[in-house]
Amino acid sequence: MELIQETKNDKKNEGGVTLRDIVELVFDNWYWIVLSVVICMSVAWFYLAMQTPLYKRSAVMLVKSENKSGNDMSGSGVENEIYILQSHQLMREVVGRLHLDVTYQVKNWLHYDQLYAESPIRVNFLDAYTAPVSMEIKPLNGNRFLLNQLKIGTKKSDNEGQEFLFGDTIISAAGRFIVEDIPDKMSAYYNVPVEVSRIDLNTAANIYHSFISTSLAGERTTLVQINCVDSNISRAEAILNALIDVYRETIIEDKNRIATSTAKFINERVEIISKELGDVENELTDFKQKNRIVSIDAAATQFMSESSKMRDELVQLETEYAIARAVERYLTDNEH
User: Fold this and answer.
1) What digits encode the pLDDT tens for the residues 168-194?
2) What is this structure's pTM?
3) Cβ 106 vs Cβ 115: under 8 Å
4) CA atoms within 13 A on the CB side of 310
5) How many CB atoms are closer than 10 A to CB 317?
6) pLDDT digit string, tens, across residues 119-159
7) Which 3 state secondary structure label does DSSP give 177?
8) What is d(CA 135, CA 68) in angstroms, rounded to the nearest whole number?
9) DSSP structure class, residue 1
10) Rounded to an integer, what distance in angstroms lies between the CA atom of residue 125 and that of residue 204?
11) Helix residue spans in 19-151 (DSSP H)
12) Which of 236, 234, 238, 239 is nearest to 119 (CA)?
């Protein structure tokens, strides 16, 4: 019996950790395992609760290729248009149109929610930007609001803790501004502090420029996909729509400018050709009148020679005139 028992113990020691050992370990320390899981899940939940959710909106735009053969549909032409879409100049125009230099947000427990179309207020600054501005506006009812924490740069303003009517012109160290209410959004934000901040247009353009990415929608295509990733879905959609509108307006302005310059050149050329045509016709008429006094044979020979030369010039000028007129009509019809 002692030999058999020693053999079993030797096998157990040689086998190492068994499944039964693991189960016993778990049962013996279950409270530590549960506590660890709870702590990890709590940390993960708090981390996610502190993060502001991001939303992605996309738009696809057709870029007309100037290459009629279609052999290079994804070549430099479309790449140039993508570069224009990503330009700082276009985004600055978008920021100016949508007033994105002024932002609105509300505290949502552990993070801030950005407001755009959902904002119950709109702050219109009447004077040029001089320094960053931040303030807290708490709507009290449909007519009045409380202004708090007004800062210009790092300095507090004297307008701290004052009540105003919506639509009042407020004079501060940041300049004049008006707080307007959005009636259909207001009821949900009574006594809810809305934090408002203003930055300069170039800084705002740099920030929102980072939200945008563009790429070809596929190979051998002139479809460009534009993506906007933002913490506010309505603002992302507004940025995409405004960016496309500004791009199209810029392209139309460039084409109109080129068409106007070309049309001006054509008009000047038409005037020159018209004058030359008149001069040639006058010379031909003078020639005919002068040669009536000479002998018939000499007049006929000279007349035929000069007439043939002038008619050739006349045909050439008339052809140039017709071409110039045709180009002018084409540019006028396609200017818009």
Assistant:
1) 999 988 889 999 999 999 989 999 999
2) 0.69
3) yes
4) 19
5) 19
6) 999 999 999 999 999 999 999 998 999 999 899 988 887 77
7) strand
8) 56
9) -
10) 16
11) 19-28, 30-50, 76-85, 88-98
12) 234
